[in-house]
C-alpha cells in the first residue's frame, strides 16, 4: 500500500514547477518545507546555545578565572538563555506545529502560507544581529536574559542590537502564532470538532493565544528600555520619575506566560507519544484540555513570584504564593493522566516512548522544585541561586527539549519515510538522560549550599559539585552530536517506514504515506 | 539495562576521581545550619515541603514504574481501553489541593513573621554599589565600605587560594547577638541583593528605594554571603561578611570606630570626603519634636 | 474555508496584538496606581498645610522617623540629613532639614527622589513641603539647608513604630533645570 501511495506522491510532485536548490527553500510556502526549516534552525541554535553552555561550564569547572573574563561570562549566560529560548525552543515548537497541525486536522496547508515563509526568514536575520552583538566593542548583552533595568541601560551597542533582535523574534513568533490560530479555526476537516482535535493541536492553539497576548508586551518593555537608553525617557530611571522595579513587573507579565509557551506544546507531544506506545487511548482527554487552559489562564496571575525578594506588601506576597501553588493542581492532573494512560496499557519502549516517559519523570522533578520555589519564605533562600538554575533546566531541558527530541524520533519516520536507527536512538536517549542528571541534579545542592547564579567564579566549598556538573555538561553536549548524526542518517536513507509507522499510532497523519507527498489533504479527509 | 550501566560508567569514573580530590571536599546537600530563628523556621519549612514532595514523587512514580514493568507488551499484556474515570479525576484534583493547603499554613505563618520589622533594637543601612557594599549604623551615623579582600593573584590562579576565597572582605559588618537588627536596603547604581544564607535573609537593594528586613542572630560567629542579583561585571566579587559578637563587645567596637571616624572626618578636607555618612560631626544628636 | 475568512480572523488577531502592545504601555500608569494603593516602591503621599493642620495629633502614640540620604553617581554633592531621627506623634506636623553641599566648580542641579520603608507606612507619610517637589540648583561649592515638612497620618498601622525616610539625589542637567517647571511637574506627580 505504502509504496503505491509514494509513487502517486512523486507524480504529484512533478505537477508543480518548483524551484530547486536554495530558491526552493527561500520561496517555499509549503508547510512541510517551512516546518523542516524551523526544525533545522532550532537544532542549529541548540548547538550554538549548547556551545555557550559548555564555555560557561568550562569556566565553572574549578575556582579561579580560566576560560572567560567576567564580562564575557555574563554575555555568555545572557546569550545562552536568549538563544535557547528564542532560537531553539520556540522555533522548534513552531516547526513541529508547521509539520503536524495541518496533518493532524486534515488541512491542505497552513492558512497563511506566504506569511509563514516570512515569519521563518525573519529568524536568521534576528539571530545574526543577536550573535553579532558579541563582535561589538562592548560585547553582547550582559544583563541576563531578563534584561533588568538599570543594568541593561548601562550596556553598549550590543544591548541595542539585542533589543532589535528581540523585536524581530517577537514579530516572527506573533506571525507564526496568528497563522496557527487561523489554521486551526478555519482549516479543520469537516467533522474535526475542537474536542476531537489531537491534544498537540490543542496545546498549540492555547500556546498561540498566549504568544499573541504576551509577545507584544515584551516588545513594549524592550522598546521602553531602548527609549530610556537613547531618547531621554525615564520609564525605569528613578531620577526621572521612573521605577526600575516596574521593568520587572512588565517583563514577568510576559515572562511567566512565556514559560508555559515553552512547555505546553511539549505536553502536547507527550500526550501524542504515550498513548501510541501504551496502545491505549489518552486518559482524561477533556480534563487534559481544561488543565491546559487553566494553566494558561493562571500564568497571567502569578508573574510576581519571580520577584519576591524585590519586596512587596505582605498581602501581595501571600496572593502570589497561593496563586502559584494553585498551578500545581492542573499540572498534577496532567501528570496523573499520563500515568493513567500508561496504566494497563501494552507498552513498548522505542526511543520516542523513552523520551516521553523520562519527560514525565524529570519534568515532575522540575515541577516539584517549582512548588518549593512558590513557598515565599523558602524562596528567599532559593532565589537567584543554582537551585533555580537546576529547577528551570529540569523544566526546560528535560521538559521542553527532551519532549522535542522524543517528538522528532516519533515523527521522523513519517516526515522522511525512513526509520531512524533504533539502537543509536536508544543510546542517544540514555546518554542524554544520564548526563542531563549528572549536570543538573548537583546544582540543587549548590544552590541550597549558597551558590548564587550568574557568577563566573566561586568559593572553594562549591568546587566538587561544580566539577560533577561540568563533566555532565560535556557528556550531555557530546551526546547531542549523536542526535545530529542519527537525524542526518535518517534523512538520507534507512529502512523504509510504512504509513502507520508505529503499531499503536492513531490520527490523521498516519493515514498518509511516509513521507507524505508535498500536498496532502487537498480534498478533506473523512472524520469518523 | 546493560546500556544504562555502560552509560553510567564515565559518570562513575568521574565520581571516583572527584572522591579522591583533596580533603577540602564539601558535599553539602541542604541549606546551611541556621543561626537566626527565621533561618531555623525556613529550614524546617524547606524540609517539610521537600519531604512532602519526595513522598508524592515516590508515590506517583512508584505507580508509573510498576506500570512500565508490569504492563509491557513483551510480557504479553493486552491493553485495556478505558479512558475516563470521573471519580478518580476528581480525587486527584482534590487531594493535591488539600496537600497545598497543608503547605500553605506554615508558609503563611513564617512569612508574616519575616515581614514584621517592628520593635527593632538597631537599624543598619545597607547600600549596594558596583561592586562593594556600604554599611551605616543609623543610630550613630557611622558608616564604612566593605570590599572583597581576596588578592587578584588568587583569582587569576597565580597564587594558592585561601580558605575563604572570594568570601572575605576588608571591613566586616559587626552585629550584636540577641538584638533585633533591622536592615534598610538601597543601592547606588543598579539592583543588588544582600544575602547571607545562615541568617536566612535575602533582599534586593534597589536604587532610589528603601526596603527592609530583619534578623536576630543567636550565635556569635562569622557568617558569609554574596550579592545575589546580577549587577554587572564583578557581581561575583562583592561578598558579605557578618561578624556577630556579644552586645557589650559590639557597643565597645562601635563606640571606638565611630569616634575615630569622626576624628578623621574633621581633619580630612571636604572635597575628598566622598560619602555623606562620613561627615558625622555636624549631625545633631537625636531630637524629639512635634506633639 | 475561504480566504476571506482567513483574512477576517487574521485582522482580528492583529488587533489583539496591537492592543496588547498598547497594554504593555498601559501597565505604566497601572503600575503607578498599584504603587499608590499598596505602597510598593515606598512612595510617599502629599498633603496641604491647611488639611494637615485640621488633624489633631495622637499624643498617645510615638513613632520614630529615621532619615537617610544618598547621591546618585554623577552628582558631585554631599547630602545628608541634619538629624538622624525624630520621635513624632501621628498627626503632628514636623519640620526637618537636610544639608546639601556642592563640590563642583560649576553650577549643578539635582532632583531628589523620596522613598519610605516599610510599605505599610509609605502612604501614611505625607509631605506638606519638600525640596523634592522641584529640582534644586546649587552654585559652585554652595551649601544649602533644605526643609521637609511632613506629617505621619493617624491611620498609620499600629504595628509600625519606626519609619525610614530616604532621599536620593539624582543629577539633572543644570541648564535644563533652570527651566525647572517641566521637571517639577513631571516629578511632582510621583512624590
Structural account:
The complex is a heterotrimer of chains A (528), B (291) and C (191). Chain A has 528 residues and is mostly helical. Chain A has one domain: Cytochrome C Oxidase, Chain A (Up-down Bundle), CATH 1.20.210. Chain A is built from 18 helices and no strands. Mean pLDDT of chain A is 93; it is low at 1-15. By secondary structure, chain B is an alpha+beta fold. Chain B has two domains: 32-73 and 82-114, Helix Hairpins; 122-264, Immunoglobulin-like, CATH 2.60.40.420. Helices cover 36% and strands 21% of the residues of chain B. Chain B has five helices and eleven strands. In chain B, the strands form two sheets. Chain B has a five-stranded mixed beta sheet with strand order 3-2-1-5-8, with no helix packed on it. Chain B has a five-stranded mixed beta sheet with strand order 4-10-9-6-7, with helices on one face. In chain B, a hairpin with a 5-residue loop joins strand 2 and strand 3. In chain B, helix 2 runs antiparallel to helix 3 (86-114). The longest helix of chain B is centred in the N-terminal third of the chain and has 34 residues, at 37-70. The radius of gyration of chain B is 27 Å and the shape is elongated. Chain C has 191 residues and is an alpha+beta fold. Chain C has two domains: 2-38; 42-190, Ctag/Cox11 (Pfam 04442) (Sandwich). Chain C is built from five helices and ten strands, in the order H-E-H-E-E-E-E-E-H-E-E-E-E-H-H. In chain C, the strands form two sheets. In chain C, strands 1-7-9-5-3 form a five-stranded mixed beta sheet. In chain C, strands 4-2-10-6-8 form a five-stranded mixed beta sheet. Chain C starts with a helix and ends with a helix. The model of chain C is unreliable at 179-191 (pLDDT under 50). At the A-B interface, helix 4, helix 11, helix 12, helix 13 and helix 14 of A face helix 1, helix 2, helix 3, strand 7 and strand 9 of B.
Uncertain segments of chain B are 1-8, 16-25, 267-291
Major sheet characteristics of chain A: none
Q: Kindly provide the radius of gyration of chain B, computed on alpha-carbon positions and rounded to a whole number of angstroms.
A: 27 Å
**Order of strands, widest sheet of chain B:** 3-2-1-5-8
Question: Strand portion of chain A, in percent?
Answer: under 5%
The biggest beta sheet of chain B is recorded as: 5 strands, mixed
Largest interface: which pair?
A: A-B, 104 and 105 residues
Please, how many domains of chain B?
2
- N-C termini distance of chain A: 21 Å
What is the CATH level 1 assignment of the largest domain in chain B?
Answer: Mainly Beta
Assembly category:
heterotrimer
Cα shape of chain A: globular
Order of SSEs of chain A: HHHHHHHHHHHHHHHHHH
Task: Report the top-level CATH class of chain A.
Answer: Mainly Alpha
Strand residue content of chain B: 15-25%
CATH architecture of chain A: Up-down Bundle
Amino acid at each position: 500500500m505504502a509504496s503505491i501511495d509514494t509513487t502517486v506522491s512523486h507524480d504529484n510532485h512533478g505537477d508543480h514547477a518548483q524551484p530547486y536548490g536554495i530558491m526552493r527553500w527561500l520561496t517555499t510556502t509549503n508547510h512541510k518545507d517551512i516546518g523542516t526549516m524551523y526544525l533545522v534552525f532550532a537544532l542549529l541554535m541548540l548547538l550554538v546555545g549548547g556551545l555557550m553552555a559548555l564555555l560557561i561550564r568550562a569556566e565553572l569547572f574549578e575556582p579561579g578565572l580560566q576560560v572567560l573574563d567576567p564580562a564575557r561570562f555574563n554575555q555568555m549566560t545572557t546569550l545562552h538563555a536568549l538563544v535557547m529560548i528564542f532560537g531553539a525552543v520556540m522555533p522548534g515548537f513552531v516547526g513541529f506545529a508547521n509539520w503536524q497541525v495541518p496533518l493532524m486536522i486534515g488541512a491542505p496547508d497552513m492558512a497563511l502560507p506566504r506569511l509563514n515563509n516570512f515569519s521563518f526568514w525573519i529568524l536568521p536575520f534576528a539571530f545574526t544581529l543577536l550573535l553579532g552583538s558579541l563582535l561589538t566593542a562592548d560585547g553582547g548583552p550582559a544583563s541576563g536574559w531578563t534584561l533588568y533595568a538599570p543594568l541593561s541601560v548601562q550596556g553598549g551597542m550590543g544591548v541595542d542590537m539585542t533589543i532589535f533582535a528581540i523585536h524581530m523574534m517577537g514579530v516572527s513568533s506573533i506571525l507564526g502564532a496568528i497563522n496557527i490560530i487561523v489554521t486551526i479555526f478555519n482549516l479543520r476537516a469537516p467533522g474535526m470538532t475542537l474536542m476531537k482535535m489531537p491534544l498537540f493541536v490543542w496545546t498549540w492553539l492555547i500556546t498561540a493565544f498566549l504568544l499573541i497576548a504576551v509577545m507584544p508586551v515584551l516588545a513594549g518593555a524592550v522598546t521602553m528600555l531602548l527609549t530610556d537608553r537613547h531618547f531621554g525617557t525615564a520609564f525605569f530611571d528613578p531620577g526621572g520619575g521612573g521605577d526600575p522595579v516596574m521593568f520587572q513587573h512588565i517583563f514577568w507579565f510576559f515572562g511567566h506566560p512565556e514559560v508555559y509557551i515553552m512547555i505546553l506544546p511539549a505536553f502536547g507531544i507527550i500526550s501524542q507519544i504515550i498513548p501510541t506506545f501504551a496502545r491505549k487511548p489518552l486518559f482524561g482527554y477533556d480534563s487534559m484540555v481544561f488543565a491546559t487552559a487553566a494553566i494558561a489562564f493562571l500564568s497571567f496571575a502569578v508573574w510576581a513570584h519571580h520577584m519576591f525578594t524585590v519586596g512587596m506588601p505582605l498581602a501581595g506576597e501571600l496572593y502570589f504564593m497561593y496563586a502559584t501553588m494553585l498551578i500545581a493542581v492542573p499540572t498534577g492532573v496532567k501528570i496523573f493522566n499520563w500515568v493513567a494512560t500508561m496504566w494497563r496499557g501494552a507498552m513498548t519502549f522505542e526511543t520516542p516512548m523513552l523520551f516521553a516517559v523520562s519527560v514525565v519523570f524529570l519534568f515532575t522533578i522540575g515541577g516539584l522544585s517549582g512548588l518549593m520555589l512558590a513557598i515565599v519564605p523558602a524562596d528567599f533562600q532559593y532565589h537567584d541561586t543554582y537551585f533555580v538554575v537546576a529547577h528551570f533546566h529540569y523544566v526546560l531541558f528535560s521538559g521542553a527539549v527532551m519532549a522535542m527530541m522524543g517528538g522528532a524520533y516519533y515523527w521522523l519516520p513519517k516526515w522522511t519515510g525512513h526509520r531512524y536507527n533504533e539502537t543509536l536512538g536508544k543510546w542517544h536517549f540514555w546518554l542524554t538522560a544520564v548526563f542531563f542528571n549528572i549536570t543538573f541534579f548537583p546544582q540543587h545542592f549548590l544552590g541550597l549550599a549558597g551558590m548564587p547564579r550568574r557568577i563566573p567564579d566561586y568559593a572553594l566549598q562549591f568546587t566538587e559539585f561544580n566539577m560533577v556538573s561540568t563533566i555532565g555538561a560535556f557528556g550531555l553536549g557530546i551526546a547531542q552530536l549523536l542526535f545530529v548524526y542519527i537525524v542526518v542518517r535518517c534523512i538520507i536513507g534507512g529502512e523504509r517506514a510504512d504509513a502507520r509507522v508505529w503499531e499503536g499510532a492513531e490520527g490523521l497523519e498516519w493515514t498518509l504515506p511516509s513521507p507524505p507527498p508535498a500536498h496532502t489533504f487537498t480534498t478533506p479527509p473523512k472524520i469518523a | 539495562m546493560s546500556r544504562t550501566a555502560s552509560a553510567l560508567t564515565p559518570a562513575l569514573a568521574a565520581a571516583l576521581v572527584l572522591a579522591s580530590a583533596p580533603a577540602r571536599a564539601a558535599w553539602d546537600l541542604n541549606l546551611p545550619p541556621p543561626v537566626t530563628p527565621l533561618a531555623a523556621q525556613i529550614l524546617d519549612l524547606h524540609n517539610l515541603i521537600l519531604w512532602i514532595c519526595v513522598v508524592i514523587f515516590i508515590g506517583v512514580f512508584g505507580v508509573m514504574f510498576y506500570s512500565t514493568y508490569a504492563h509491557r507488551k513483551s510480557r504479553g499484556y493486552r491493553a485495556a481501553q478505558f479512558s475516563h474515570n470521573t471519580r478518580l479525576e476528581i480525587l486527584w484534583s482534590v487531594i493535591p489541593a488539600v496537600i497545598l493547603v497543608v503547605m500553605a499554613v506554615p508558609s503563611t505563618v513564617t512569612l508574616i513573621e519575616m515581614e514584621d520589622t517592628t520593635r527593632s533594637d538597631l537599624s543598619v543601612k545597607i547600600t549596594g554599589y558596583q561592586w562593594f557594599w556600604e554599611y551605616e549604623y543609623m543610630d550613630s551615623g557611622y558608616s564604612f565600605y566593605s570590599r572583597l579582600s581576596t588578592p587578584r593573584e588568587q583569582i587569576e590562579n597565580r597564587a594558592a587560594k585561601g580558605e575563604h576565597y572570594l568570601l572575605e572582605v576588608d571591613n566586616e559588618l559587626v552585629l550584636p547577638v540577641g538584638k533585633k537588627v533591622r536592615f534598610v536596603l538601597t543601592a547606588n547604581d543598579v539592583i543588588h541583593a544582600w544575602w547571607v544564607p545562615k541568617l536566612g535573609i535575602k533582599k534586593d537593594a534597589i536604587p532610589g528605594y528603601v526596603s527592609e528586613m530583619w534578623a536576630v542572630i543567636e550565635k556569635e560567629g562569622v557568617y558569609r554571603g554574596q550579592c545575589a542579583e546580577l549587577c554587572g561585571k564583578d557581581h561575583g566579587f562583592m561578598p558579605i561578611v557578618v561578624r556577630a559578637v556579644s552586645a557589650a563587645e559590639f557597643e565597645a567596637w562601635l563606640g571606638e570606630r565611630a569616634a575615630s571616624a569622626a576624628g578623621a572626618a574633621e581633619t580630612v578636607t571636604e572635597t575628598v570626603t566622598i560619602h555623606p555618612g562620613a561627615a558625622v560631626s555636624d549631625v545633631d544628636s537625636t531630637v524629639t519634636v512635634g506633639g | 474555508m475561504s480566504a476571506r475568512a482567513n483574512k477576517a480572523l487574521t485582522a482580528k488577531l492583529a488587533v489583539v496584538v496591537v492592543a496588547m502592545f498598547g497594554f504593555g504601555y498601559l501597565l505604566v500608569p497601572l503600575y503607578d496606581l498599584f504603587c499608590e494603593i499598596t505602597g510598593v516602591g515606598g512612595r510617599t503621599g502629599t498633603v496641604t498645610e491647611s488639611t494637615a493642620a485640621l488633624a489633631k495629633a495622637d499624643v498617645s502614640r510615638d513613632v520614630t522617623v529615621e532619615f537617610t540620604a544618598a547621591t546618585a553617581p554623577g552628582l558631585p554633592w554631599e547630602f545628608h540629613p541634619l538629624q538622624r531621627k525624630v520621635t513624632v506623634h501621628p498627626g503632628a506636623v514636623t519640620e526637618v532639614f537636610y544639608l546639601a553641599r556642592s563640590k563642583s566648580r560649576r553650577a549643578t542641579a539635582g532632583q531628589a527622589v523620596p522613598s519610605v520603608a516599610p510599605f505599610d507606612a509609605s502612604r501614611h507619610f505625607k509631605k506638606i513641603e519638600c525640596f523634592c517637589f522641584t529640582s534644586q540648583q546649587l552654585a559652585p561649592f554652595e551649601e544649602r539647608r533644605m526643609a521637609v515638612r511632613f506629617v505621619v497620618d493617624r491611620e498609620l498601622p499600629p504595628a509600625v513604630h519606626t519609619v525610614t525616610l530616604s532621599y536620593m539625589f539624582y543629577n539633572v542637567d543644570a541648564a535644563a533645570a533652570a527651566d525647572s517647571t517641566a521637571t517639577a511637574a513631571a516629578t511632582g506627580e510621583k512624590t
